[in-house]
Amino acid sequence: MKPLTISILRLLSDGMFHSGEEMAQQLKVSRASVSNALKTVNNLSASIYKVRGRGYCLAQPLQWLDKGQVDEALGARANLFDLDVLDVVGSTNTVLMQKAGAGAPHASCVVAELQTDGRGRRGRIWHTDLGGALTFSVLWRFNQGAAFLSGLSLAVGVAVVRALRDAGVVDVALKWPNDVLHEYRKLAGILIELQGDVLGPSSVVIGVGLNVRLNNQVKECVDQPITDMHAIMGEALDRNLLLASLLGHMADVLELFEQHGFIALRDEWLRMHAYQDKSVRMLMPSGEWREGHVLDVAEDGALLVTTSRGKQKFTSGEISLRGAL
What we know:
30% strand; 30% helix; Arc Repressor Mutant, subunit A; single chain
């Protein structure tokens, strides 16, 4: 995606009509360059009205991410996060993993207006459109090793739910191990990627994707029930305020996790679990479906389920959870 296309959309974000000649002058490019850039707008799921004699206007306003607004909403917490706002990336997790390898500081955060190659759990694609999602990644450095970090995705889920409830989203719940649901439709997902030694220290990149306002084209690409903040709330939400709230709650949860592990958040997570004490069907890596009843979650974040084989313990990444038919 060309930077010029994003620059044009930023000019049009005021909701006014702008002629191609006017935009070319402001951006110091040729009129032909503006015309060519506008042809790629539909690839970004943004629609533009063209009226002879008036120029171009966005059919629906775009709200842009702004570091200054996020920092202001974070208050004292702004000093903790090293926030980098990007226009278009393949994956915020990939960008931040590279930064981590190059020595990026603790609590670095990358957030993107558009993510073109987002990744979910088990290699799935995370679909987004411009302005329709909040996709960001946070680097957190731990003194402990991989074993201590079991249950981290569940802990992050607690932070996400806290932020969504603060935003007025009711009936939001968690699905083991890393999905956020609203009325059993996926609203957000979490992806954890780890670097470091077994005994520590370790660096974790925590990716979060939250559906804000997805268009029908994106929804049709997803093979499971999904929803977004606009469908739930009936209004557009300020992504900058939402990001600040998410980062603030993540800092609280990660600092607690760092001191005590998942056990300190286990009871809260259980109260948020959509499938707690319910019958479920589980898709195993082999493709086999197994039925069971969710009992509990262990101190290391493993799911405890009663099946025909007795009480079993499942770790993150082993199963896909579905409500029983």
